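Assemble and predict.
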Amino acid sequence: MSYDDVEIEDMEWNNELQAFTYPCPCGDMFQITKEELKIGEEIARCPSCSLYITVIYNMEDFLGDSKKHVEPSKQQPVAVA
Amino acid sequence: MSSKAMEETERVETKEEEEIWSWGAGTEGQLGTGKLQDEHHPQLIQYSLSSFCPISHLSCGGAHVIALTSGGRVLTWGRGTSGQLGHGEMVNCLHPKSLESLEGIFITHASAGWNHSGFVSDTGYVFTCGDGSFGQLGHGDYISRCSPEQLFHFKTRHVQQVACGMRHSLVLLKGDTEDLIYGFGSGKRGQLGISDDKQKLVSTPQVTLGFENVKIKSVTANGDHSAAISVNGHLYVWGRAFCRAPDVYRPRRVTTDLLFSQVALGWNHALVLTCDGEVYILGRYNYNVPTGAQNANMMKHISEDEGVMQRVLDFDSTKVGQIGAGAEHSALVTADNGSVMTWGWGEHGQLGLGDTNDQTGPQVVSLIDEQSRKPCVGRVYCGSGFTFVVRTHTVNSSF
């Protein structure tokens, strides 16, 4: 059973993991790559546990030139000491 | 020997000894054990904290922990990759580490969110650090910070409490005036309570609606939920709804005759403790425990709110002293003997029962105490997938 349905705009792009992520209740993160989204995969899994979520997105947004894809408008966190 | 000297010689001194236990998900160092692994059995971590004891308050987040000492010092450990530990860098920390940047400031309250942290001083200042990408630090931007930074929005007000959820924060001000609760961060599910319409992101504190003429005792946040308890025992909830109902954009009082003293929020459920020491649950766990099993074993429908509030049945005769909620698990401490009980999702050992099984009803956690000292007072604190217990024993020692 899918733990939750999450819209792609609520997921965060993680440069290090090269994946869209969303918090998992175990403390780790659900993850899905652009390549997976391109082929219509809608399940984002957590590497630490058995839970997974269903990602709600429009597959066409991820097809073709990846540069055209609009990433979430949020900027990546910047460290300020 | 004078009689006064006799008295002093034979005086029996009572001294308090503190034990700290942790278990559950541990791969970010959040258990404070010095190891990066899950623990299915309770681990005594007294040693690493003993030089800082006594611990007056703990708050457990997504994968980090904030501890306050009775002397107002702050310790943090666990995941620090968003700056949530406040040590000036974005790295994990396996052992409790004193927060140097807040030294000299007496911290009375703190809250650990998913990846951010809030601290309140005795003088009413509030500081935040960690992930700020949803505006949840309240500094008017979307920048993360790895050292606690004072929220100048409240520099002329006295802040009493801060509550950090997954992507939002709440602040409770002290005083008899109105506008006592503020929210900032993600408001997509209504968790800020600042507007009747959907508000995506807010990076400066905004007034939470609906508390005109209501005096609030405490605020709580976890996941996309928010809750408050008024001084007269009324429970208010807003944000993501329980039981897949529509989201609640304006704080709503839960209609019941019961009076509440504490609320603990998960990601899909809330535990509430009544002033009579009874525990009720709102919503259900959102993982694969069959709903029917939950209903049959542990709950009794009591509220008119579409069956969302149900009593945890096992406690007809036992009074509960304190409660805690992780993302998908629950914990409580009994009032009479300080027993710790857990139930819910157990995949990471967060129930502390020695396995990874789920439990549909409260189970006693065995905290092996070599000296079996009594009485003891326990407090339980849950992070997303892990659990902490702080127990205080009163030890009599003759001199």
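Chain B touches chain A through 39 residues (CB under 8 Å).
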